[in-house]
Amino acid sequence: MHIKQISSDELDDLVMLFDQYMVFYKQGSAPEKYRNYLNERLTQGEATVFIAYSDEKEAIGFVLNYHSFSSVALAKIIVLNDLFVSALHRKQGIANQLINSVIDLAKSTESMRVDLGTAKDNFSAQALYEKIGFVKDTEYYSYSLPLSHTAC
After folding, report:
1. In terms of Cα–Cα distance, which of 50, 48, 97, 98 is closest to 77?
2. What's the pLDDT at 149?
3. Number of Cα atoms under 13 Å in the Cβ half of residue 66
4. Who's near 125: CB < 8 A, 6+ residues apart?
Protein backbone atom coordinates (compact mmCIF):
# COMPACT_ATOMS: atom_id res chain seq x y z
CA MET A 1 0.00 0.00 0.00
CA HIS A 2 1.19 3.51 -0.71
CA ILE A 3 -0.23 7.00 -0.26
CA LYS A 4 -0.07 9.70 -2.89
CA GLN A 5 -0.94 13.39 -2.85
CA ILE A 6 -3.18 13.70 -5.87
CA SER A 7 -4.00 16.29 -8.50
CA SER A 8 -6.93 16.46 -10.89
CA ASP A 9 -5.17 13.69 -12.86
CA GLU A 10 -6.42 11.18 -10.27
CA LEU A 11 -9.91 12.69 -10.08
CA ASP A 12 -11.60 9.44 -11.18
CA ASP A 13 -10.09 7.58 -8.21
CA LEU A 14 -11.15 10.32 -5.81
CA VAL A 15 -14.69 10.56 -7.17
CA MET A 16 -15.21 6.81 -6.82
CA LEU A 17 -14.17 6.91 -3.16
CA PHE A 18 -15.94 10.21 -2.43
CA ASP A 19 -19.20 8.81 -3.78
CA GLN A 20 -18.91 5.87 -1.35
CA TYR A 21 -18.13 8.33 1.44
CA MET A 22 -21.20 10.42 0.69
CA VAL A 23 -23.45 7.33 0.57
CA PHE A 24 -21.96 6.28 3.93
CA TYR A 25 -23.10 9.67 5.28
CA LYS A 26 -26.63 9.14 3.91
CA GLN A 27 -26.20 11.39 0.87
CA GLY A 28 -27.28 10.23 -2.54
CA SER A 29 -24.88 8.75 -5.05
CA ALA A 30 -24.06 11.60 -7.43
CA PRO A 31 -20.62 11.06 -9.00
CA GLU A 32 -20.87 13.88 -11.55
CA LYS A 33 -21.97 16.39 -8.91
CA TYR A 34 -19.09 15.31 -6.67
CA ARG A 35 -16.67 15.36 -9.62
CA ASN A 36 -17.47 19.02 -10.29
CA TYR A 37 -17.08 19.96 -6.63
CA LEU A 38 -13.82 18.07 -6.16
CA ASN A 39 -12.31 19.21 -9.44
CA GLU A 40 -12.94 22.82 -8.45
CA ARG A 41 -11.30 22.32 -5.04
CA LEU A 42 -8.24 20.71 -6.64
CA THR A 43 -7.80 23.05 -9.60
CA GLN A 44 -8.32 26.15 -7.44
CA GLY A 45 -5.74 24.89 -4.92
CA GLU A 46 -8.37 24.96 -2.15
CA ALA A 47 -7.79 21.41 -0.95
CA THR A 48 -4.99 18.91 -0.57
CA VAL A 49 -6.03 15.29 -1.03
CA PHE A 50 -4.15 12.09 -0.33
CA ILE A 51 -5.30 8.72 -1.68
CA ALA A 52 -4.21 5.34 -0.35
CA TYR A 53 -3.58 2.79 -3.10
CA SER A 54 -3.34 -0.96 -2.62
CA ASP A 55 -0.40 -2.90 -4.02
CA GLU A 56 -2.73 -3.66 -6.96
CA LYS A 57 -3.06 0.11 -7.57
CA GLU A 58 -6.70 0.20 -6.39
CA ALA A 59 -7.80 3.40 -4.64
CA ILE A 60 -8.88 2.27 -1.16
CA GLY A 61 -9.07 5.42 0.97
CA PHE A 62 -8.67 9.18 0.97
CA VAL A 63 -8.28 12.19 3.18
CA LEU A 64 -9.33 15.68 2.04
CA ASN A 65 -7.85 18.72 3.78
CA TYR A 66 -8.56 22.42 3.63
CA HIS A 67 -6.10 25.14 4.51
CA SER A 68 -7.16 27.71 7.08
CA PHE A 69 -5.62 30.24 9.44
CA SER A 70 -5.66 31.39 13.05
CA SER A 71 -5.79 35.17 13.39
CA VAL A 72 -4.94 35.02 17.10
CA ALA A 73 -1.87 32.86 16.51
CA LEU A 74 -1.03 34.43 13.13
CA ALA A 75 -0.50 30.93 11.80
CA LYS A 76 -1.72 28.33 9.31
CA ILE A 77 -4.04 25.45 10.21
CA ILE A 78 -4.81 22.28 8.27
CA VAL A 79 -8.44 21.17 8.54
CA LEU A 80 -8.76 17.42 8.07
CA ASN A 81 -12.28 17.59 6.68
CA ASP A 82 -13.00 14.18 5.16
CA LEU A 83 -11.45 10.79 5.85
CA PHE A 84 -12.69 7.55 4.33
CA VAL A 85 -11.43 3.99 3.87
CA SER A 86 -13.47 1.55 1.79
CA ALA A 87 -15.25 -1.10 3.84
CA LEU A 88 -13.12 -4.02 2.63
CA HIS A 89 -9.91 -2.29 3.72
CA ARG A 90 -10.77 -1.03 7.20
CA LYS A 91 -8.94 -2.08 10.37
CA GLN A 92 -5.63 -2.36 8.47
CA GLY A 93 -4.00 0.90 9.59
CA ILE A 94 -4.85 2.78 6.39
CA ALA A 95 -6.69 5.62 8.15
CA ASN A 96 -3.71 6.02 10.48
CA GLN A 97 -1.34 6.28 7.52
CA LEU A 98 -3.61 8.80 5.76
CA ILE A 99 -3.69 10.92 8.93
CA ASN A 100 0.11 10.74 9.16
CA SER A 101 0.23 12.15 5.62
CA VAL A 102 -1.86 15.08 6.85
CA ILE A 103 0.47 15.62 9.79
CA ASP A 104 3.43 15.63 7.40
CA LEU A 105 1.58 18.16 5.22
CA ALA A 106 0.99 20.39 8.24
CA LYS A 107 4.66 20.25 9.18
CA SER A 108 5.81 20.96 5.63
CA THR A 109 3.51 24.01 5.38
CA GLU A 110 4.58 25.20 8.84
CA SER A 111 1.01 24.94 10.10
CA MET A 112 0.49 25.27 13.83
CA ARG A 113 -2.00 22.38 14.10
CA VAL A 114 -4.36 19.95 12.40
CA ASP A 115 -8.05 20.33 13.27
CA LEU A 116 -10.81 17.80 12.68
CA GLY A 117 -14.31 16.99 13.82
CA THR A 118 -16.19 13.74 14.14
CA ALA A 119 -19.61 12.55 15.23
CA LYS A 120 -20.14 12.20 18.97
CA ASP A 121 -21.03 8.53 18.49
CA ASN A 122 -18.09 7.66 16.21
CA PHE A 123 -16.12 6.01 18.98
CA SER A 124 -13.72 4.07 16.74
CA ALA A 125 -12.62 7.29 15.00
CA GLN A 126 -12.29 9.08 18.34
CA ALA A 127 -10.10 6.27 19.67
CA LEU A 128 -7.87 6.45 16.59
CA TYR A 129 -7.53 10.24 16.78
CA GLU A 130 -6.68 10.15 20.48
CA LYS A 131 -4.18 7.31 19.93
CA ILE A 132 -2.40 9.46 17.35
CA GLY A 133 -2.31 12.40 19.77
CA PHE A 134 -5.33 14.56 18.89
CA VAL A 135 -6.88 16.22 21.93
CA LYS A 136 -10.63 16.70 22.30
CA ASP A 137 -11.49 20.36 22.77
CA THR A 138 -13.15 20.99 26.13
CA GLU A 139 -12.72 24.76 26.07
CA TYR A 140 -14.79 25.81 23.05
CA TYR A 141 -18.16 24.94 21.55
CA SER A 142 -18.62 24.74 17.82
CA TYR A 143 -21.58 26.48 16.18
CA SER A 144 -22.97 26.54 12.65
CA LEU A 145 -25.55 28.70 10.93
CA PRO A 146 -27.31 26.70 8.19
CA LEU A 147 -28.08 28.86 5.16
CA SER A 148 -29.55 26.18 2.90
CA HIS A 149 -30.74 22.62 3.11
CA THR A 150 -28.98 21.31 0.02
CA ALA A 151 -25.65 19.55 0.02
CA CYS A 152 -22.98 20.56 -2.52
Report:
1. 48
2. 62
3. 11
4. 83, 95, 118, 119
